[in-house]
Amino acid sequence: MLVNAYGAHAGDQPLQPLQITRRAPGAHDVQIDIAFCGICHSDLHQVRAEWQGTQFPCVPGHEIVGRVAAVGAHVHGFRPGDLVGIGCIVDSCKHCADCEDGLENYCDGMIGTYNFPTPDAPGWTLGGYSQQIVVHERYVLRIRHPEEQLAAVAPLLCAGITTYSPLRHWNVGPGKKVGVVGIGGLGHMGIKLAHALGAHVVAFTTSDSKREAALQLGADEVVVSRNAEEMAAHAKSFDLILNTVAAPHDLDAFLVLLKRDGTMTLVGAPATAHDSPNVFNLIMKRRTLAGSMIGGIAQTQEMLDFCAEHGIVADIERVRADQINESYERMLKGDVKYRFVIDNATLAG
Ligand code: NAP
Ligand code: ZN
User: Fold this and answer.
1) Are both 15 and 154 inside the same structural domain?
2) Mapping DSSP to helix (H, G, I), strand (E, B) and coil, where does residue 274 land?
3) pLDDT tens, 132-168?
4) Hey, how many other C-beta atoms are within 10 angstroms of the C-beta on 96?
5) For a FRET experiment, which of 46, 124, 210, 318 has its CA 20 to 30 Å from that of 60?
6) Mean pLDDT on 295-319
7) How far apart are CA 130 and CA 127, in angstroms?
């Protein structure tokens, strides 16, 4: 089946309209009419070949929401018309220890929603900047938010789970002091979720202009990280720092803010490496520098249900498909509050 999409033919070319094929749904497949797709900074890293191994044409997009159009004969959990989401994972080996633990995100055979090998044409997965997608039912999420919020639910499928998963893994809750570094797509969700989990939340930003907005998102305090005095006031005080920054920067400036046994987990994935941290900043207080990648399917459903229950969605700006290139430039300038979401109806005709 041919569907309209938006993608790039090379890393140095803008995204443009193109047509792609989707497989006919197999027995366990769910065919989805995509209503909205968020624009993640990872989409930009991949489609511009900042990360290695991009296959072209590349159709990004892994913050997908829409309605079920059709289901295969053996699908029992979903029916046509259901509101559903697809995040960053469309397949995995299904039998390794990671898959059995519901941590498909760490399966060596994980198939990402775009740029991963697949038997489907053209040989690698094509993402959500498209009218439809066909996915095995195991990787389809149920959306329980009201339909009016659907566009603002889309970013939960990556930005939401990528921040929720480490917050849960490091037991964030009442009595914990949590820092969120970078108030972009991921960071703004990190602030909302850490606040909803009951933690004391400190937002770190390079942008003085985001100070007020960060408080409205749920931060208890805001620190402009370029200001050494403001930084020093928080020395040795954090249980967890969630670092979402998409560029190499000084990790030591944040490590010294962790208390004994505190952890900084990196979720930002810049194309070039950070300078190594000063090991003394780790060993002196038994601190941990960690990383975390998205989250498993069960936890993604848990996060969506948590957000529906607490009325949490992303703060978004809706864009047409022909505004994707401009949206990338604005994202690089930090000129978005806080996630662009494509209205996939604008891919028609
Ligand atoms: P984003 O919307 O562009 O936000 C990144 C934020 O980082 C910016 O808003 C800015 O916040 C801060 N920042 C950017 N450049 C900076 C610099 N040079 N120095 C200091 N701060 C800077 O991006 P995103 O969609 O949230 O994604 C963030 C990163 O996470 C990307 O690298 C993405 O690929 C990665 N990611 C990882 C996972 C995972 O599973 N680990 C999942 C999704 C995305 P302020 O203006 O507040 O300083
Ligand atoms: Zn993403």
Assistant:
1) yes
2) coil
3) 999 999 999 999 999 999 999 999 999 999 999 999 9
4) 16
5) 210
6) 98
7) 7
85 with 51, same domain: the answer is yes
Domain that holds residue 164: 160-291
Reported as a pLDDT band with limits 50, 70 and 90, residue 3 is very high
Contact call for residues 144 and 308 (beta carbons, < 8 A): yes
Give residue-wise pLDDT tens across range 101-116.
999 999 999 999 999 9
Report every protein residue that has its C-beta within 5 angstroms of ion ligand 2: 40, 42, 158
Residue 170 predicted with pLDDT over 80 = yes
CATH number for the domain that contains residue 213? 3.40.50.720
Q: Which residues pair with 339 in a beta bridge?
A: 316
Q: What would the DSSP string read from start to end of 58-112?
A: B-----EEEEEEEE-TT--S--TT-EEEE-SEEE--SSSHHHHTT-GGG-TT-EE
**Ligand with smallest separation from the Cα of 294:** 1
Q: Using 50, 70 and 90 to split pLDDT, how confident is the model at 308? A: very high
Q: Is 70 domain-assigned?
A: yes
